[in-house]
Amino acid sequence: MTEFLAMGGYAAYVWGAYGVMALLLATECWHLRHRHRALRARLRRLARLPGLEEGT
Q: At a CB cut-off of 8 Å and minimum separation 6, what does 5 contact?
């Protein structure tokens, strides 16, 4: 098991790459969630504007 985790001497590169990728994926998920919430809030505000009711 230790040999597998050492990755033949490339462990720092391999595990570092996994760490950076996990960080980027987490950041992307956070950013998408933030944008989604902001868009929903904007749509709610727009829906309250006068003259935008359905059928007009």
A: 11
